[in-house]
Amino acid sequence: MNKNILVIDDDESIIWVIKKALEPLGYKITSRTRLASGLRAAENRPQLVLLDLILPDGNGLEGLREIRSADPDITVIMITANARMESTITAMKEGAYDYLEKPFDIEELKIVVEKAFRDLAMKQELRELKKAAFETETPQMIGKGPKMLKVFKDIGKVASKDITVLITGESGTGKELVARAIHFNSRRSGGPFIALNAASIPKDLLESELFGYKKGAFTGAVGNKTGKVEAANGGTLFLDEIAEMDPNLQAKLLRFLQDKEFTPLGSTESIKADVRIIGATNRDLAESVTRGSFREDLYYRFNVVQIKVPPLRDRKEDIPLLIKAFLSESAEKLETGEKELSKEARILLSKYDWPGNVRELENVIKRACVLSAGTMIEKKDLLLEEDNAYSIKEFLEEKLKRYLKDMTRVTNFDLYDTILSEVEKALIAIVLRETNNNQIKTARLLGINRNTLRSKIKEYKLL
Questions:
Q1: How many domains does the structure of the chain reveal?
Q2: What average pLDDT does the chain have?
């Protein structure tokens, strides 16, 4: 481990003493005499910063907040000639590792610095152990096609940057796996990873689940409860299906994203929490903003970086890899013994459209491993309807081939516009019937703007 120390202190004699004491022990010392230049030097990510409380161009406590906000992994020890109880308490609350008063004892300085680096080494070791556990115990994202490679690249780009991320994709595509990969490849990997699905919790209970509550906050609150935000302090909170949140809760979440503070139900005191938020949704959030069900300011807070997870039907080249992984997992964890798929079973799996995505494929393989007799999994063991084993593309191609046999004899026929309009008209009519003519639901299912839907309904005289 490197032993880089940045000293930010306007007293040149103090800098000289620190260098004299620590450089012979193998520490590399960089120094700055002003806060502004010190903060710029901190961007080079030293392991430890010795920061003076009072500097010519600013307050050391503000510098502490900025350093910790930019990189929570940097250890900061405050040093000052004017120690007061208030400033000491504030510094420790803001995340200072320790507090030394000038003139400090050289041996004390050595002990505190050595302890800080021992703790840093332990954190690094713990981070590596957790990452190894993640790689061996957590289901991994599998894929070699261009769409999944883009997801992997996006994860690599955002993991080290402590920014909010929005993960979008259909149910079952593996959005939580993306969030876990971001966490375990970030500087927060030594901290907790907490997941919360907003759609799985009643809306009137979601706020208390997220922010916690104090005893007596409501009927049945017989004790204090720690919320997911506080539990994720120092780590990552993954909020799945954020579009399901109540507008009032959205406002409170926005406040937390802005200030890193929250107030539990039944409390009047704000609590700080150093948490990275990763959100996910299977909806079009921009459309939700247009409809007024999702706050525009919260949308822009979440949408700093967006990672789109492709549906399985758009990356069928990955199906053989996923099948191999699920067969292996079934043999190991479900003790089904080694199994393999017949040629007919593999063909069916490759043609199936997978509306439930990777999750559905996993369930199909594991179910077949458990229920099939012998080592060979036949097509019948998959319990899939062959009628569904065709993609939309294949279905339309088959229908168009039949239609075009007759159309090739017709001249001066606007084939392109006619087919597109007929398909669009039929699709909108079907979805309208399924939703009992609910235009909001229809627009959501079709993935189009409600105004666009209205104009199409009028154009095709559907209502």
A1: 4
A2: 86
